[in-house]
Amino acid sequence: MDVSQLLSSINVITSSGQLATADPQQRAQLSRACDQLKSLCESPLEKTIQLLFAGHQAIAIRLAIDLKLFDVITSRSSEASDGIFTLQHVLADVKADPKLILRIMKFLASMGILEQPSTDTFKPTAFASAYVSASPLSAAVIHFTHFLTFISRLPEYFDTKGWKNPENLEDSPFSFALGTQSRYFDYLSSKPYYQTAFNTVMASSYRRSEKNWFDFFPVEEKLKLENPSDVLLVDVGGCQGEDLYTFKKKFPNLPGRLVLQDLPHVIEAGKIPNGIEGQGYDFFDEQPVKNARAYYLRNVLHDWPDKQVVEILSRVREAMNSQSLLLVEEKAMPETDVPLMAAVGDMSMMVSFSAAERTKKEYECLFNQAGLRLTGFWKPEDASEMQPALFEATLF
Q1: pTM of the predicted model, to two decimals?
Q2: Confidence band for 389, pLDDT divided at 50, 70 and 90
Q3: What's residue 273's pLDDT?
Q4: Where is the active site (predicted)?
Q5: Radius of gyration of the chain (CA)
Q6: Average of pLDDT values for 13-25?
Q7: CB 387, CB 381: distance < 8 Å
Q8: Which one is the CATH code of 209-395: 3.40.190.10, 3.40.50.150, 3.20.20.370, 3.20.20.30?
Q9: With contact defined as beta carbons under 8 Å apart, do 300 and 326 qualify?
Q10: What pLDDT does 204 receive?
């Protein structure tokens, strides 16, 4: 097929409506194929322009979100049979300069989020409703555009620090950007708007794995207890207990106690599900639950530099006996061909905490430093690049 035939085929597909019936997996495959095709077609100049001005587009969406413009657009367009609304319709509900609102909406139209049939009329595309206030995607825009504030200072940070890899929690790129020794989570707690956005993003279904760890880990073979009064599983840093609750629903007859641990204020503020014991605990302190069959940490270690990771693991190791397992669920970075979103996650951990997304070898090294031996590495065969792995470790 020559280029003209390929172009003709693409135009036929995009104008035929065939993609409307594609399922999510097919859409993802097509999107990746389109990305590969685009990378072969664009010049270095075109690639650079796309990268440089991506921030402008993100900020344009952020401005509209802060103004609750998408809420108004969705409401107003639903009142018209053709979905078209005017600038005057928006002005009644958005308190901002009309000229500014018009500029923002024109920008959104250039991005394909709105259509602009005439000078002062607009129509939302399918993307517009994704950014209403109740959407987790709007929270993601707030969170990540705010995070650009810190990322933009990386060149200065590394120039000042002699281009050394960040390894000190008290001297992170985040603290440098803010000119303080405040830690990222402490800072967020003082900024309700950004804390709310962060919490929404962290709790979003978009972040949940395709499969739970106990869907591909041999639970009934590995987690056996004879005495139901013994502790079966401790979820260390488990927030509100969603993972333990889902685990209990899948294995209702598995003997043993389930213990949820997090900071005292998290446990006190939450509604702990029935059948799960809540316990206030800081994972840098001595582990109060001794000799449990398994200790589980999900997305904990990537928030910390190597030194603190070893400390956290050591506290668990001190509480384990020869029958205990440590189960750690984290993304395992590939040694080569790192996916873009994995690289983005790694940079985010570096900026926020002087931490990292790590490879299997790097985690194994940290386990060894804490006196633990990696005995298993579990991941579904059909797992996507975003599916975390489950590391299994025991005492040496």
Answers
A1: 0.86
A2: very high
A3: 87
A4: 302
A5: 25
A6: 78
A7: no
A8: 3.40.50.150
A9: no
A10: 77
Tracing tokens 């590939």 back to the chain, one arrives at 334
Burial label for 129, CB within 10 Å (0-12, 13-18, 19+), is: middle
Domain 53-131: give its CATH architecture: Orthogonal Bundle (1.10)
pLDDT digits (tens, 9 = 90+) for 285-305: 999 999 999 999 999 999 999
The two structure tokens encoding residue 129: 């409703």
Domain-wise residue ranges, the chain = 53-131, 136-206, 209-395
Query: What are 326-351's pLDDT values in tens digits?
Result: 999 999 999 998 988 899 999 999 99
Annotated catalytic, 302? yes
Catalytic residue, candidates 56, 143, 146, 302: 302
Length of the chain equals 396
β-strand pairing of 372-378 with 389-395: antiparallel
